[in-house]
Write a structure and sequence with these properties.
Chains A, B: Keywords: DNA-binding, Transcription, Transcription regulation. Chains A, B: One of its GO terms (molecular function) is DNA-binding transcription factor activity. Two copies of one chain form a homodimer. Chain A has helices at residues 22-29, 33-41, 48-61, 67-74, 91-105, 119-130, 180-193, 209-224, 241-252, 266-278, 312-327, and strands spanning 79-84, 109-114, 136-139, 161-164, 175-178, 199-202, 234-235, 260-263, 288-290, 307-309, 335-338, 341-343. By secondary structure, chain A is α/β, with parallel strands linked by helices. Chain A has three domains: 1-65, 434 Repressor (Amino-terminal Domain), CATH 1.10.260; 73-177 and 312-338, Rossmann fold, CATH 3.40.50; 180-311, Response regulator (Rossmann fold), CATH 3.40.50. In chain A, the strands form three sheets. Chain A has a six-stranded parallel sheet with strand order 2-1-3-4-5-11, sandwiched between helices. In chain A, strands 7-6-8-9 form a four-stranded parallel sheet. The longest helix of chain A is centred in the middle third of the chain and has 16 residues, at 209-224. Chain A binds a DNA duplex (16 and 16 nucleotides) through residues 21-23, 31-35, 37-38, 41, 45-47, 50, 65-75.
Chain lengths: 354, 354
DNA sequence: GTGAAAGCGCTAACAG
DNA sequence: CTGTTAGCGCTTTCAC
């Protein structure tokens, strides 16, 4: 079946079988198309009663400007591209929601580009962007498109860009993030304050920029508390539940078992706890577990997860606001840091024998 | 700071300070603009060596067609709008990922419209759609835009539409969904087969179309097993973790407590289990809990959740495929039903005293 | 304060 | 197989 056969009819049921154009409005209001355009773009420059007449005609015809024509003429699309590494990751949904909300208010639409680990898709979105299909982009993926640069060493993309969550090293664009290093240090020190001395650290993907900040914070915390950094205690993960499960197995196989594990995502922490429980190891009685992000499920995990709260919606909003400022010729800070919060729940306790 | 001041340079570093247009390519290849256009749209209609010359010129200039111009002329945008009730809901992320993937392969971009309970936003996206900014739309929100209809009773939107997950009553558009009723019935009967007689049912939002199917399935299952439907055992929720928590409190306050609770979302089931545990009620020893959806966290919940698996990525893919078929003039089935799976894990057991 | 006119960059008839 | 021509619907000088 096809739904393509319907006749188009203007919104309020008047007019013939096609969308109203600026001409139709102009004719009805007895003005030129230029005036109609003005009423929409800069109402104050049109006399009051002309404006009223035009507005009435617009309502009557159900006129909606054709965006392609407008865009062709004005070289603006009122669209923003949001590039992210993995749409399926639940961590992003609230951030996206914050972005969408803010963009919407500013009159911009949001196009999503899911990289999904495919260089081909990345190239596509780079082309997409340089083809002028969007006015700006928010990058959550930690690097610039294809890093293609022209002879002058300037990126070929010449629209405003904003980096969100993952800083882009060497890129001269505004960055919105949380202080990963400080947050990570804070959690590490909290763990020590609860009596832990052997604290394992479950990382995100090795090449991840923000991960480097976090592990630095972990080392900061250790050092501040007079503890040595032990590479043996660092387990590599990738933020997913599955890598938490795997890390649990790794841990269970060890003879010298840490008393606490600091996971840099809640997903990993939850997966880890699961493996531990299945093996009869209790959290937090036998081993403490801490997370990072404070996703919705952290509070209802069993036990409720002690973690670092990231203001995800606010991060999205801040990035969108920064981009809109840029798009409208305003300036925006080079770096915006949002505050994290240590959320103490039940997954961390004193180690046995303390 | 502003990043707007960069000069634009064509991809490969050649040419002056502006993007190449079709004219530039035509001149360089010594053909007309029409031929360049043909090389891009229907290469086989152009002679081999002209094509080669044009392709070379395209590469040399770094030409990328201007989408606004193309769109204005051809009345196509190669964009699809995806409307959903709540972007922040993690249930949607994998579906979106499936949609994006399929759309991308077909050469379409994905614009996200998050309704977020706002009628104003809904109106916006309706206008957006009728303004021709997208070629088609996938609706996950269970109803048509603003249900504005013109004099003839036809919807004002005349582009292909596809309904995903939530059927749209009375709408004559293809529908992609799972068999909610059968799945719900199956779970109910499974619960009965494990010895349960008093099975509570935790619903989604009351006005939700798909919810009506599910509760029907629950009643089917009860009836098939010779059990009476008891409205007292129906608790109203809204798919969120929070409503699961609330339902738990409700249940704890009851004197006649059911031995099992069938929740129509995993989020609610997880929230519910949390409340139960906090009150010292064990799952599944004291009460069994079943979910719906099989989100990632279901498998690592404590206890691991028995639930109905929905093929979320496949749902997204199927909807996108159906829409693309429509957009390209092919036909598509009126209704596509994807199979669900009963996933037995640890949250359901025999009731005590059986 | 308003109108006329010139395109924005592309595609699709229509000729040849 | 290829070129010429005429717009798609809008915004924006430039006159008045």
């Amino acid at each position: 079946m096809s739904t393509g056969g319907r006749k188009f009819r203007a919104g309020s049921g008047e007019g013939a079988g096609r969308a109203a154009r600026i001409q139709d409005v102009a004719r009805l209001a007895d003005v030129s198309t230029a005036t109609v355009s003005r009423v929409l773009a800069s109402p104050n420059v049109v006399s009051e009663d002309t404006r009223a007449r035009v507005l009435e005609a617009i309502a009557k015809t159900g006129y909606v400007p054709n965006p392609a024509a407008r865009s062709l003429r004005s070289q603006k699309t009122y669209m923003v591209l949001v590039v992210l590494p993995n749409l399926a990751n639940t961590f992003f949904s609230k951030i996206l929601s914050g972005i969408e909300e803010t963009l919407f208010e500013a009159g911009y639409g949001m196009i999503i580009g899911d990289l999904d680990g495919s260089p081909e898709k990345e190239a596509h979105f780079a082309a997409f962007t340089s083809a002028g299909r969007v006015d700006g982009a928010i990058l959550l993926n930690g690097h610039l498109f294809g890093q293609s640069r022209d002879a002058q060493g300037e990126p070929a993309i010449n629209i405003p860009l904003v980096a969100l969550c993952e800083a882009i090293p060497g890129a001269n664009i505004p960055q919105i993030e949380v202080d990963n290093r400080a947050a990570s240090r804070r959690m590490t020190q909290y763990l020590v304050s609860r009596g832990h001395r052997l604290i394992a650290y479950l990382t995100g993907p090795a090449d991840n920029v923000l991960e480097k900040e976090r592990i630095r914070g972990y080392r900061d915390g250790l050092r501040a508390e007079g503890l040595a950094f032990d590479p043996e205690l660092v387990i590599e993960g990738d933020y997913t539940i599955k890598s938490g499960i795997d890390a649990g197995r790794d841990l269970l196989g060890r003879s010298r078992r840490p008393t606490a594990v600091f996971c840099t995502s809640d997903e990993m922490a939850i997966g880890l706890m699961r493996t531990l429980h299945s093996a009869g190891v209790r959290v937090p009685q036998d081993i403490s577990v801490a997370g990072f992000d404070d996703i919705e499920f952290a509070a209802v995990a069993e036990p409720a997860l002690t973690t670092i709260h990231q203001p995800r919606r606010e991060l999205g909003q801040a990035a969108a606001t920064a981009l809109v400022d840029l798009l409208q010729g305003r300036s925006t800070p080079e770096r915006i840091r949002l505050k994290t919060e240590l959320v103490v729940r039940d997954s961390v306790a004193e180690p046995v024998g303390t």
